Amino acid sequence: MSDPSPAAAPPRVATGGLVLLAVTSVAWGLSWPVSKYVISEWPPLPARGLPGLAGSLLLFAYAALRGDSLLVPRALWGRLAVSAFFNVTLWMVVMGLALLWMPAGETAVIGYSMPVWTALLAWPLLGERPTGRRVLALVLGFGGIAALMGADGFAASTAKLPGVALALTGAIGFALGTIFLKRFPIKLPGATSAAWQIGLGCIPVTAVGFAFEVPSLDALSPYGWAGLAYLTLIQFCLAYLCWFAALQRLSASVAAIGTMSVPVIGVVASAIALHEPLGLGQIAALVLTLAGVALATRS
Known about the structure:
By secondary structure, this protein is mostly helical. It has helices at 10-38, 44-66, 77-98, 104-111, 114-126, 132-150, 161-183, 190-212, 222-249, 252-258, 261-274, 280-296. The protein is 76% helix and 0% strand.
């Protein structure tokens, strides 16, 4: 990733980071019901890995058209591999599998407990001491997550335990990836960095998926094809590019707390598209979570 300009005025840099974060959150939030639908027609790992590989190729083409270098200095390969594992491979695998056991909204809620883990780990690992506003934002955000988990009698039943464990694994892993990028930034152009990380991260996901089951193109409906197109162009190309760019401009804790709007968007979108529950508990969670996001962006 490229370094933010040291000459830029702080308010403009912060505003740009928040806009990038907002685009990322909306794109990722809508991807939950889309992913849930796609894996109803395709095996979960190919359904996650193939759009990622296609998205990485498009990002490479975009970077080349911009005139950005696609070369990676030898010293950065290790950082690329670690970041790709935590931010892409691990997240794609465990979340894709978690959707087999849980509704898309519940999976998004548990997966996006990542801001809690990031804020806790950023203190000892990055020295980012939590401010009063940030702590309150975390409390509000976690309260929103708790409200979603308790809505309509949500409980981690025996049947859902594998999904819960997988989603928590993805949340902690993504938090570690966020902190790793702040501690060891990848100084490449944004599109180049995103292309390499997504491509490297999705190769093992796709390979393992094909080892178990080769997906059939005939199994996809028109909605399935539309879903794959969304995952390729929006979830991977647009959202990841914005996410890595936002991390350059925001602290790890603020960036992670900002993504707490993703499960709210995921729950609402899943209720509309997949007819998953949306009652008073989800509405209360919406208010709490967005309040936490708004407070975090002012800290």
